[in-house]
Amino acid sequence: MSEEIFRTVAGDSEEILEEKRSEFIAAVKRVSTEDEAMAFVKERKKLHPDARHTVFAYLLRKGAARYSDDSEPQGTAGMPTLEAIRRAGVEDVVVVTTRYFGGILLGAGGLTRAYAGAAHLALTAAGVAEYVPFTYFLLDCTYADHPRIENELDRLGVADRNADFSDRVRIEVGLPSEQGELLCRRMVELTAGRCTPRELRRTMGLKI
């Protein structure tokens, strides 16, 4: 498991910027490979078959970066989009901007501002998350203890959990490893030692 922490977008987004009757529709998606990035570009082209241009840029954690102006003047579309990604400080992300021409020429400066601006809007809407080391635990508890355990998990912000109800309640939870000690201590305190979390595995997880 790689312990490298990195920032990416928290989710997908789509935002529209209008400039002198031209419409710039920027869409953001989290990806992990170049194939995934290009598949999203193709998806956006199919979604907007009548658009004049479909500009894209992506930046991956392992260093791959690529962009396309898609027949816009060189340097006015793809590169500003890639720079918007870099300024946002995120990786493993692709931004695809669809342009519907409004009949008024924007000039090189206008195009650069519009593509950068549309990408910025979409990246801001997508939000930022971190991939950090996660630890998964098994909580084995009685039905009587279950409500207070669920309340404490809510208080700790543990969203990644899955419960099985049989003779007892068994809950698998995942949370940033830095919170693991606190979780274990609180479970023991709340149940007077009846529920002692058992570590299952460690991996990387998304901390939003």
Explain what you see.
The protein is α+β, with helices and mostly antiparallel strands. It folds into 2 domains: 6-126, Impact, N-terminal domain (Ribosomal Protein S5, domain 2), CATH 3.30.230; 130-207, Alpha-Beta Plaits (2-Layer Sandwich), CATH 3.30.70.240. It is 33% helix and 37% strand. It contains 5 helices and 10 strands. It has helices at residues 34-47, 78-88, 107-126, 146-156, 180-191; strands spanning 6-9, 13-19, 22-30, 53-59, 65-68, 93-100, 128-141, 160-165, 169-176, 198-207. Strands 1, 7, 8, 9 and 10 form a 5-stranded antiparallel beta sheet that branches. Strands 2-3-6-4-5 form a 5-stranded antiparallel beta sheet, with helices on both faces. A hairpin with a 3-residue loop joins strand 8 (160-165) and strand 9. The longest helix is centred in the middle third of the chain and has 20 residues, at 107-126. It is elongated and about 70 Å long. The mean pLDDT is 94.
